[in-house]
């Protein structure tokens, strides 16, 4: 796909087919957040106040992890301004929703709303894009890692999903803190420190064993759920010179009940076309995309997308191809020869 179009180009053509009111905030989404918050508070109290066998804590811990992730998905929507518009209420509710993931609202809006959405899959400007082999090869440790067989790297990459969101959030904090005006920096620091202080304080309050079930295991599970989506959003797509959501983004499909509890986070191409629209309306946007540009649109079941991630290497070779440095094998990306149904090596560098 060489004829790229900007997200505005697509949005302009779709918007005229959408009903009035689709860009209004939908505060009813907060009922889902309230339900998640009640579950989290109840779960924390059950673990903290009762001395039960750890096997009884485990299912509570799993529910907490799923709720942490659900709150994060709602926080993402809130901070795009699609739930409430008033800035201070938006940031307050966003901070509460992201509290379990310890990501501040001002950092998230800077990192995600501004940089990621404006520069999606740009080799240098997108903070979430996977780097090229040229950039990775500057590190001796990375060069050593990429000498390992693909399946070993895939195993550790998937295992690392359990910490990737938290680790990347901290990385983004230190990458962007200096970009805030000096008067704003203390607030950004506070938004990062307070959640972590809460969870570390909980450790001293209830002890190691209960804390593992009340926060640590739920955090790992929340990272896995969130990164299960995020890792498929763009990593199978090419790097692009133009922010073209139909080229650089992938929508995954999940059961309807999962879409319901995850606030339609699976509709990622749609989100990049209309980040200021409530995800409630994304099924309608998807209908029009598939009607107008069916050959450009990328979607697949999330399980198939994760398998494709497992079977393909991550560094980019020429922005459109993925390379396994240990073998010199090139794989296509979506729209550039990658067939998720039958993943094969596109060519060898020494051919």
Automatic annotation (TrEMBL):
One of its GO terms (molecular function) is oxidoreductase activity. Its EC number is 1.14.19.-. The chain crosses the membrane at residues 30-50, 56-76, 144-167, 188-206, 212-230. The keyword Nucleotide-binding does not apply. It is an enzyme of class 1 (oxidoreductase). InterPro entries: FA_desaturase_dom (IPR005804), Fatty_acid_desaturase (IPR012171). Residues 54-300 form the Fatty acid desaturase domain. Keywords: Membrane, Oxidoreductase, Transmembrane, Transmembrane helix. It comes from the Bacteria. The keyword Transport does not apply. Coiled coil: none annotated. This is Acyl-CoA desaturase.
